[in-house]
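# nightly structure sweep
# worker-07 picked up a monomer target from the shared queue
# config: single-sequence mode, recycle default, output format = structure tokens
# input follows
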Amino acid sequence: MTRTRLILVAVTSATIFAALGSTRLHAQGAAPSATSPGDVPAAAGGAPQRPTFPKRRTGLWEIRSVGSQAAGLPAMQFCVGENTDTAASHLDRTPGARGACTLGAFVRAGDAWLSESICRESRTTVTSRAVASGNFDSEYRIDTLVTYDPPLGGVRREDKDAVAARWIGACAPAQRPGDMIIPGMGTLNMTDGGFRPEPEPRPPRRRAGGPASRPAP
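# output follows
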């Protein structure tokens, strides 16, 4: 997988998987809010205005890649704070130039959000078109189509990715907004880039006064 491909996967993933309906939220004792987290309050007596960017509910989100090439990959977790999603940076991307790439912001298209990003690697232009859907209060999904012009190796014209996310509760006390918990590796903070590796597992403790182990025959 090329460096540009990894960038495009990263900017569409992180936020990520298996939808959770309102029935399950009620069963867990957490009723969905009356308005979407991204709604802009209206004047007194008026209906909420539609949000100008996708804003997720604060708390811990489980993120899972659901593309055809993601079978067996473990789910990640992401801690969303009040200021994680803003007009300048949302769904784990900050629009603008990033090296060989130009990342586009998500803009509303009906009930969904669309974004287009373009990277140039050698003689190939890589275009990523992402569609984000869901209520961002209990679940959301991002489907991405990546096209190559001219085709990679003369034959590969496109790739598809999909990620789905569900809200699972409050962030743990030790977690900070922007923390992406990656199983088997550690925690990467998407805001400041800091990485905290998983602690080494402790060896099992021996009982005091227990029988000594016998040498193997």
